[in-house]
From TrEMBL:
This is GATOR2 complex protein WDR24. It comes from Amphilophus citrinellus. It comes from the Eukaryota. The lineage of its organism: Eukaryota, Metazoa, Chordata, Craniata, Vertebrata. Belongs to the WD repeat WDR24 family. It is found in: Lysosome membrane.
Length: 788
């Protein structure tokens, strides 16, 4: 292990010295706690419960509290705390709902002292009173907090948070009777231990579960909270209403938060997923950490400052089964590597660029943004504060505006609203989206959708895939036979065109009917007699467009014959007959024609060059039905092209519509990046419904969970106002049905509408009909209800 510099801190009669060091644990740790004199640390987890001594250069195992051949679930710890007044007293929160206290002064191997089993679900947190030796507080997943007097065998008080789960409880450092509790519904409650019937104050702290809270050790009214919304907020609790005074934006959910001793504005945080680092923040500079510890290889589960008056040593446990002592001098300082430049695009296409003033002022062509423009009300400039202990790096902001008319994003909004991504057959989705793009004057995108339909549609259903394709007029033309029609036609000589015009001027000239699918060789050769080039092919009334040429299919699917060695070096295009017979109506035309002799029809059939007709080949040279996988590399390149051009809307839309046809060709990280970019754009344009649809249709696990956060609905009983369980409509406490219609007095199992003034309600149709004729509440409470 690399040797670090040693630090010695004098704290009264005690002296703390050490360095950055670690030790391997037997199992992952869930929580750690340090004793009052900072010489020992306890590590608790599902399969570990040990005490280590903090020596100068290493951790030394002192005591293993998991004793017995078959340890019970009481040893499976979710949290642990060492009493700061009594050095031999520990408390643990068990995953089976038990709260256990441990007396290290016992002479026996089993140090268990008290066992409380009043909680019904996992206990998330235990907390000793900072000055009262026998007072212990617990918070559980069952929504209750309990206060224990360790001299008694059961709890003395029960506090109901009226929520689903209590995540953290913390006694105030300055107020003897006050403790704070954080909940999964985003609320924080302040309680007085003398009044277990109702909280003193409640406020919504985060837009999701609040996982942790911590009182400031010096400032009486400051409370720090951390939640799943990736934020750490500092609240001033001295006012009548909780006031947010600082907010730190992190990059992951905040699992633990601890104020740094002797530093008023510093606190440490760690995450419960994704991010393994420990950050120390200066709350006055919320966008970049003051220091970072990057030693752990897995999620950090517990952090604690070694001594309540020493800011230099931080202890941490992790799921990587290591216990670390971090020395603050060895921490990484991100501010030293910070990039002073910033770049961002606005919704209107404008570009904001921030850089050092020295770079901006050196370029005479750039003018710093003056501020105050109504078009950019969100820009503001912070005045320098001389009391902040930061290196001041001043930047200048420049805004490059674009012409609004030439860079409007109306097409993006309309495309997002009109595109169909699911609910119809693949071919119909492609045709609809192609039509939308065409109407918005985006021909390249429209053509792309058309080509996707051609590539991936079922060949048997191509004829019915769209009204603009005349496949029914073409019948069974082979796909590979359509590539050189124009080339052959352009190679004809003038004489051939003259003879063609003569033939077309005749009254009895033969035209193709819409149902005809091919042209006879004999007729073509007869019409082009005397021409030196290849014959020209015409489709009569059924003219082909470009889409038709690329969408021809050969429907004659016969069983493949066994391969035999051909007798000819060049395979004949069709069977050569000695005396070919043409249909009677063609023979009649030949007899009537003034420039065709009777024997010329036979000669033309035996001429290899003139008898080669792309339209009349009975079998294609190869199978016309290319598998969908044949086009996947091309489609993958096309999606990458659109994404690189900034059109993630097209990339994501095609990805959703094609589904499994293309999804495996693109790696998950690229798909996630496209989805996140498109969803971000949709939300910036406030297209919430489209954004939610894209999230629902996504197959990336990181995307589908975006609309699953904070979706729990907490229901209170309309009679006793207590929280309802998830088992049914009957309240567990008052045994009354909570959702009875005020009009018909039956249980509402569908849409329920209620008055926010009196809380009475019922079936939607019943309430609508009632309020059409009466303004008074149907429950008879006298409230004037209003339906809007």
């Amino acid at each position: 292990m690399e040797k670090m510099s040693r630090v010695t801190t004098a704290l009264g009669s005690n002296t703390i010295s050490g360095q950055t060091m670690f030790c391997h644990l037997d199992a992952p740790a869930n929580a750690i706690s340090v004793c009052r004199d900072a010489t020992q640390v306890v590590v608790a987890g599902r399969n570990i419960f040990k005490i280590y001594t903090l020596e100068e250069e290493q951790f030394a195992e002192k005591l293993n509290l998991r004793v017995g051949r078959k340890p019970s679930l009481n040893f499976s710890c979710a949290d642990v705390m060492w009493h700061q007044m009594e050095e031999n007293l520990l408390a643990t929160a068990a995953t089976n709902g038990a709260v256990v206290t441990w007396n290290l002064g016992k002479p026996s191997r089993n140090k268990q002292d008290q066992l409380f089993t009043e909680h019904k679900r996992t206990v998330n947190k235990v907390c000793f009173h900072p000055t009262e030796v026998y007072m212990l507080l617990s918070g559980s997943q069952d929504g209750f907090m309990k206060c224990f007097d360790l001299r008694k065998k059961e709890s003395v008080s029960t506090f109901s948070g009226q929520s689903e789960s209590v995540r953290d409880v913390q006694f105030s450092m300055k107020d003897y009777f006050t403790f704070a509790a954080s909940f999964e519904n985003g609320n924080v409650q302040l309680w007085d231990i003398r009044r277990p019937d109702r909280y003193e104050r409640m406020f919504t702290a985060h837009t999701g579960p609040v996982f942790c809270c911590d009182w400031h050790p010096d400032d009486r009214g400051w409370l720090a909270t951390g939640g799943r919304d990736k934020m750490v907020k500092v609240w001033d609790m001295t006012t009548n209403r909780a006031k947010e005074i600082y907010c730190v934006q992190t990059i992951a959910s905040v699992a633990r938060v601890k104020w740094r001793p002797e530093r008023k504005f510093h606190l440490a945080t760690c995450s419960m997923m994704v991010d393994h680092n420990i950050y120390v923040w200066d709350i006055r500079r919320p966008f970049i950490p003051f220091a970072t510890f990057e030693e752990h290889k897995d999620v950090t589960t517990g952090i604690v400052w070694r001594h309540q008056h020493d800011p230099q040593f931080l202890l941490s446990g992790s799921k990587d089964s290591t216990l670390y002592q971090h020395m603050f001098r060895d921490a990484t300082r991100p501010v030293d590597k910070a990039n002073p430049e910033g770049l961002c695009f606005g919704l209107l296409g404008d570009l904001a660029f921030a850089a050092k003033e020295s770079l901006i002022t050196s370029d005479a062509n750039r003018k710093p943004y003056p501020g105050g423009d109504r078009r950019y009300p969100m820009f503001f400039f912070k005045k320098p504060d001389p009391t902040e202990q930061f290196a001041h790096v001043s930047s200048a902001l420049s805004v490059f505006e674009t012409d609004l008319d030439s860079h409007r994003m109306d097409w993006f909004v309309k495309t997002a609203q009109l595109y169909l991504l699911s609910g119809k057959p693949f071919a119909e989705l492609c045709d609809h989206n192609a039509k939308v793009a065409q109407e918005l004057k985006r021909p390249q995108v429209s053509t792309t959708w058309t080509m996707l339909r051609i590539m991936f549609s079922d060949p048997a259903n191509l004829a019915a895939s769209g009204p603009n394709h005349n496949l029914s007029k073409l019948g069974t033309l082979p796909l590979m036979n359509s590539f050189s029609l124009k080339d052959l036609g352009s190679g004809m000589g003038a004489e051939s065109r003259l003879e063609r015009s003569k033939g077309e001027s005749r009254q009895d000239n033969i035209h193709l009917e819409p149902g005809n699918s091919y042209i006879s060789n004999n007729e073509e050769n007869e019409e082009t007699e005397g021409s030196e080039g290849h014959p020209e092919y015409m489709f009569g009334d059924a003219e082909l467009d470009d889409d038709d040429l690329y969408s021809m299919e050969h429907d004659n699917q016969t069983e493949e014959q066994e391969y035999t060695l051909p007798q000819e070096a060049f395979q004949l295009r069709h069977e050569i007959m000695d005396n070919p017979s043409a249909p009677e109506h063609l023979q009649q035309d030949k007899a009537d024609s003034p420039h065709v002799s009777g024997n010329e029809a036979e000669v033309t059939c035996l001429t290899p060059i003139e008898s080669f007709s792309l339209i009349s080949i009975s079998q294609p040279l190869f199978s016309p039905h290319l598998p969908a996988s044949f086009f996947c590399p091309i489609v993958r390149e096309m999606l990458s092209y659109y994404a690189e051009q900034g059109d993630v809307q097209m990339a994501v839309s095609v990805l959703i519509v094609l589904g499994d046809r293309i999804r495996k060709e693109i790696d998950d990280l690229t798909q996630e990046h496209w989805y996140m970019s498109y969803i971000d754009l949709l939300q910036r344009f406030e297209l919430w419904n489209v954004s939610n649809e894209v999230i629902k249709l996504s197959t990336c696990s990181a995307i589908t969970c975006l609309n699953q956060t904070s979706t729990t609905l907490h229901i209170n009983c309309s009679n006793c106002k207590r929280p309802m369980s998830n088992k049914g409509w009957i309240c567990d406490r008052c045994h009354q049905c909570a959702s009875v219609c005020a009009v018909c007095h039956h249980v509402v199992k569908g849409l329920f509408v209620w008055c926010q003034g009196c809380s009475h309600g019922g079936h939607l149709e019943h309430m609508m009909n009632w309020l059409k004729s009466s303004a008074h509440c149907p429950a008879g409470c006298g409230h004037l209800c209003e339906y809007t």
